[in-house]
Intraflagellar transport protein 20 homolog (Oryzias javanicus), 132 residues
Amino acid sequence: MAKDPLAEAGFHFDELNKLRVLEPDVSQNTAELKEECKEFVDKIGHFQKIVGGLISTVDGLAKEAETEKMKAIGARNLLSSVAKQREEHQQLLQALIAEKKMQLERYRVEYEALSRVEAEQSEFINQFILQK
């Protein structure tokens, strides 16, 4: 079989009988590869959109979690502060109770002393009246 002189020179005819530099199989493979590459790039673009949406969703959730975390820390600090204030108030009230007890004891001692003085004076007055 005689070889085609154009094929030996690297020229080929395609299915439309157009003169091509590439062999028809190589040209077809190249076209298929080009289409596959286009599909791959489209899929990568779609994947990037999905991943971008996922990342923005996760970022939003992270911000919400951080906000809730700060609220929880603030509430815990407030609770701790309230507990400390309650403890300080309790200590203040206990000190006030102790002071009032001391004052009551002083008043009781003073009352007893005044009661003795009153009894002595009443007895003195009674004896003075009886002597007259």
